[in-house]
Specification:
- It contains 9 helices and 7 strands, in the order ααβαβαββαβααβααβ.
- It is an alpha/beta fold.
- The protein has a single domain, classed as Vaccinia Virus protein VP39 (Rossmann fold).
- A 7-stranded mixed beta sheet has the order 3-2-1-4-5-7-6.
- Helix 5 links the parallel strand 4 and strand 5.
- The longest helix is centred in the first third of the chain and has 15 residues.
- The chain starts with about 20 loop residues before the first helix and ends in a 13-residue tail after the last strand.
- It comes from Sphingobium jiangsuense.
């Protein structure tokens, strides 16, 4: 998946630019508005540019080279990450449980001139994805697993394991953790610590992060954590000089023999498919 041993892959393609005069751009804006989104919002029309400045550098730090690879983006939302992966030469297949999001993602790829490099599918139940086993070299789960219903998470992770080829990689990033004092997406304080029974009392679902222990259980026996020493490099690549807290987290994680990405408000893990997977394997996925 990466460059030559001891070398980090460098990505120097031109940044994809949306053709704002195109019919595809007009369709993108119309579809976004129909779905209740503002096209000019950073997390809608500006999302691909954001991910070019962030996800691209993250891939580089973890030595993941999309060029010539079959890549599944699980939970593509408006297609921002798919734009980046396609621009870097990946053969992208993107799925989302929202028909609206899938339609917006297709238009997003078209307005960037990358629709030939990516296929976007609406899949209502991602516990059973419509692809043969071992179809992909890489899976990207960017800011999505926290939206999977807790009772469905294990089945979803089993499906992603099935779809990866032997030695394939899965990058989990931007995944809000339920251990964070402030929920990453809603920015609400302490909501992660409220039991789900509170939702019934309020008559609405509160956004929470994913439980790291449940995620670890679903990964165990299926994936092996790799690239632990690159987490701090990834922080430097994306955010500049790592803070004292980041360096401390990295040291503590090294002492514990687990990935430092478990401790962050956004969980970040690079994983490799374990060929011999089963509930009795007894190996951790830290």
């Amino acid at each position: 998946m990466g460059a030559e041993p001891g070398r980090t892959a460098r990505y120097d393609p031109a940044q994809p630019v949306a053709d704002t005069a195109s019919q595809a751009h007009r369709e993108f804006e119309a579809l976004a508005r129909k779905a209740g989104m503002e096209p000019s919002d950073l997390w809608v029309g500006g999302y691909a540019d954001y991910e070019w400045r962030h996800l691209r550098l993250l891939l580089q730090a973890y030595d993941l080279h999309p060029g010539g690879r079959d890549i599944l983006e699980f939970g593509c939302n408006v297609g921002a990450s798919s734009v980046v992966l396609a621009a870097l030469g990946g053969r992208v297949t993107a799925v989302d449980i929202s028909a609206d999001a899938a339609a917006i993602a297709r238009a997003n790829l078209r307005r960037h001139g990358l629709d030939a490099a990516a296929t976007v599918l609406h899949v209502a139940d991602t516990r059973g994805l419509p692809f043969p086993s071992a179809s992909f070299d890489m899976v990207l789960a960017n800011s999505v697993l926290e939206y999977v219903e807790p009772e469905q998470l294990d089945a979803v992770l089993a499906e992603l394991h099935r779809l990866l080829r032997p030695g394939g990689r899965m990058l989990i990033c931007g995944t809000a953790s339920r251990t964070a004092i402030r929920e990453v997406h809603s920015r609400r304080w302490l909501v992660n610590y409220l039991p789900r029974g509170v939702d019934r009392l309020l008559g609405r679902s509160l956004q929470r992060g994913i439980c790291p222990f449940q995620l670890a259980h679903g990964l165990s026996g299926r994936f092996e954590a790799i690239g632990r020493d690159r987490w701090l490099e990834a922080r430097a690549a994306v955010h500049g000089r790592p803070s004292f807290a980041m360096r401390a987290v990295s040291r503590v994680a090294a002492l514990l023999g687990i990935s430092p990405g478990w401790f962050a408000p956004n969980i970040e893990l690079l994983l490799e498919k374990r060929v011999e997977a089963g509930p009795d394997s007894g190996r951790r996925s830290g």
